[in-house]
Amino acid sequence: MDQAILVLLASDVRAQMDLIDETYDKLEERAADLRADDQARLESAAYQLHNLYNAVEDLLRLVAAAFENQIADTGRWHIRMLRRMSHSVEGVRPALLSRETYRLLD
């Protein structure tokens, strides 16, 4: 892989990781001392959880696009992306997700 492409990928990954960290911090803030009867905070926490999942998914897509091809089956691409990123591709890249992270995201 071309060095310039790797540098660009590294920059994109860092930016996405920053977004993941920011979103996680917001989720922790919204979920702190959360009560079932606090509908507004519950919805806010759920929204941040949704944003966090999407940010992680976008990170996985960045890596898949750089090292592999896109997932063609649009009907089940979410689970296929998670599965693909939980396996190493010999000579290409290590696994991005541990078994536990895969289980939690699934």
Give a description of the structure.
The protein is mainly α and 106 residues long. It has one domain. It is 70% helix and 0% strand. The chain has 4 helices and no strands. The longest helix has 29 residues. The chain is elongated.
Characteristic key phrases:
106 residues; mainly alpha; 4 helices
Question: Helix and strand layout, with pairings?
Answer:
Elements: H1 3-31, H2 39-67, H3 77-85, H4 99-105
TL;DR of this structure?
This protein is mostly helical and 106 residues long. It has helices at residues 3-31, 39-67, 77-85, 99-105. The chain has one domain.
Low-confidence stretches: none
Radius of gyration: 16 Å
User: What is the H/E string?
Assistant: HHHH
Q: Calculate the terminal CA-CA distance, rounded to whole Å.
A: 30 Å
* Whole-number total of structural domains: 1
Mean pLDDT equals 89
Helix count equals 4
Count of beta strands? 0
Helix content: 55-70%
